[in-house]
Amino acid sequence: MTVHVRDGLRQEVLAANLAIPKAGLATLTWGNVSGVDREAGVFVIKPSGVPYEDLKDEHLVTVRLSDGAVVGGDLKPSTDTETHRCLYLAFPSVGGVTHTHSTHAVAFAQARQQIPVLGTTHADTFNGPVPVTPDLTAEQCAKDYEYNTGRVIVDMLNSDDDRAAEVPGALVANHGPFTWGATARKSLEHSIICEAVAEMAIHTMAIADMAIHTMALASTAPPPRHLLNRHYTRKHGPDAYYGNPEVTGT
């Protein structure tokens, strides 16, 4: 028997999922958003493997929060469903969860590095670095893998709902980002921001590294001034001889 959810939830979840590729957060079908109805004890999530361009309201799947049973929809839910369920059970303030494989956030996850706070853009949303989980153990991968993916996030945040609200996202090592928020739409916004600050961090660290190398080069002897002058004056000034006059038709 299908469980009915609060008005507007299915439309919100559908819109958030359709926004994933528009925001540049997914390749193929690599991403999903869910939204919870705590009063009904269920959440609505994207089905597994359905292309975004084909996704419709009737494809969404309703899952029971207590045990993960499908109670609405004809398709299989996302393979990440149990991770979403784990986060909902651990953090009462969470109303929506988003998972993507966005390029820059995944790069940090694959490097097993947190996204550092390098500026105010990051601090506007995340009160601290976006943390990265430890690697899952062989036992965690062998059984209940998707639920254990959520558990490593929950354990890393010490099951602290206030902490989850202050830093509404985490990187699963070697995998990618999961973000959350008060609504499905808000969780998606946090994914967009997570990807943006990850990209900014990569550029910032690259520039800082370049500056260090530039300072190191500055300690070496520069090229002779007469060599630099020759290269400049052969293209500029009254004695320039580089190139040819503009060719005009006759």
Q: What is the count of helical runs?
A: 9
Fraction in beta strands: 5-15%
Number of β-strand runs: 7
What general form does the structure show?
A: elongated
How would you briefly describe this protein structure?
The protein is an alpha+beta fold. The protein contains nine helices and seven strands; from the N terminus they run H-E-E-E-E-H-E-H-H-H-H-H-E-E-H-H.
What would you note in describing this structure?
The structure is a single chain. By secondary structure, the protein is of the alpha+beta class. The protein has a single domain, classed as L-fuculose-1-phosphate Aldolase, CATH 3.40.225.10. It has 9 helices and 7 strands. It has helices spanning 9-22, 81-90, 103-110, 120-123, 138-142, 145-156, 161-166, 184-218, 225-233; strands at residues 31-37, 42-45, 61-64, 70-72, 96-100, 169-172, 176-181. Strands 4-3-2-1-5-7-6 form a 7-stranded antiparallel beta sheet, with helices on both faces. Strand 6 (169-172) and strand 7 form a beta hairpin. Helix 2 packs parallel to helix 6 (145-156) and helix 3 crosses helix 8 (184-218). The model has no long low-confidence stretch (mean pLDDT 92).
